[in-house]
């Protein structure tokens, strides 16, 4: 069934919002003071992001493709798998969805933002940073992480077995994200998605959060550009070898 562009954009909007609620919601649960999950650990965050991708793909994969990531949309367009005239509307829907999802996280954890006096912990619930404060490492981690994510997701969703059983493919994509956060997430978070980093960082800058510190805009281009580069390469590898 072919859906209207409006319906596809609604799917991208709500799908990206759900990604943020599950993903950055899990970070807030771990990092902010006096939550039920305070210091629950990295696996809690990895699980949150894995489910945060799995559920939108299950819900909206048949509607819009469930890109929920501007890097995925751009990469598919560059490699001839997606129409260019839908790229900008998709990205706008994804950015707005990411903003909504992050704002919901802020609202639900509002008392804990007030209780938390560690600016790094607060920032972590919004966007990524490099643990070693090295911009090159930041770029490489986000690029290679997104490359693996996009290559793996396309292999699952577009190979014959995935097209035959899209629900199973969506579940595997969720596990890919879960595995990436546990394996390659140490240096940066990770983001792997320009919308997931840019819009929450913007909200971090404008929301009245005590003790929030700087939004680190000087490095904000990295989790936008690096995932796009990695996604284009990952999509190209899929097209060359399996497409």
Automatic annotation (TrEMBL):
GO-annotated molecular function: glycerol channel activity
Record has Chloroplast as a keyword: no
Entry keywords, A to Z: Membrane, Transmembrane, Transmembrane helix, Transport
Gene3D superfamilies for the chain: Glycerol uptake facilitator protein
Keyword Membrane applies: yes
CDD domains named among the record's database cross-references: MIP
GO CC entries: plasma membrane
Transmembrane region(s): 13-30, 42-68, 88-109, 143-161, 167-186, 220-242
Record's subcellular location: Membrane
Alphabetical list of PANTHER family matching this protein: AQUAPORIN OR AQUAGLYCEROPORIN RELATED, AQUAPORIN-9
Family that this chain belongs to: Belongs to the MIP/aquaporin (TC 1.A.8) family.
Name by which UniProt lists this protein: MIP family channel protein
């Amino acid at each position: 069934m072919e859906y209207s562009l409006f319906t596809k954009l609604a799917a991208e909007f709500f799908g990206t919002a759900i990604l943020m609620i599950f993903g950055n919601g899990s970070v807030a649960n771990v990092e902010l003071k006096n939550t039920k999950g305070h210091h629950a650990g990295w696996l809690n965050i990895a699980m949150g992001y894995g489910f945060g991708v799995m559920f939108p793909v299950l819900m909206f994969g048949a509607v819009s493709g469930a890109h929920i990531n501007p890097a995925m949309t751009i990469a598919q367009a560059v490699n001839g798998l997606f129409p260019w005239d839908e790229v900008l509307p998709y990205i706008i829907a994804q950015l707005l969805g990411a903003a909504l999802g992050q704002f919901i996280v802020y609202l639900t954890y509002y008392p804990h933002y007030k209780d938390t006096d560690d600016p790094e912990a607060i920032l972590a619930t919004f966007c990524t940073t490099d643990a070693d404060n090295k911009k090159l490492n930041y770029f490489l981690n986000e690029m290679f992480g997104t490359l693996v994510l996009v290559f793996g997701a396309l292999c699952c969703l577009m190979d014959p077995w995935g097209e035959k059983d899209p629900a199973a493919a969506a579940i595997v994509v969720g596990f890919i994200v879960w595995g990436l956060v546990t394996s390659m997430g140490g240096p940066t978070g990770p983001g792997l998605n320009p919308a997931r980093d840019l819009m929450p960082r913007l909200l971090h800058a404008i929301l009245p959060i005590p003790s929030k510190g700087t939004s680190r805009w000087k490095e904000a281009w990295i989790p936008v550009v690096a995932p796009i580069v990695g996604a284009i390469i990952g999509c190209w590898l899929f097209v060359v070898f399996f497409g």
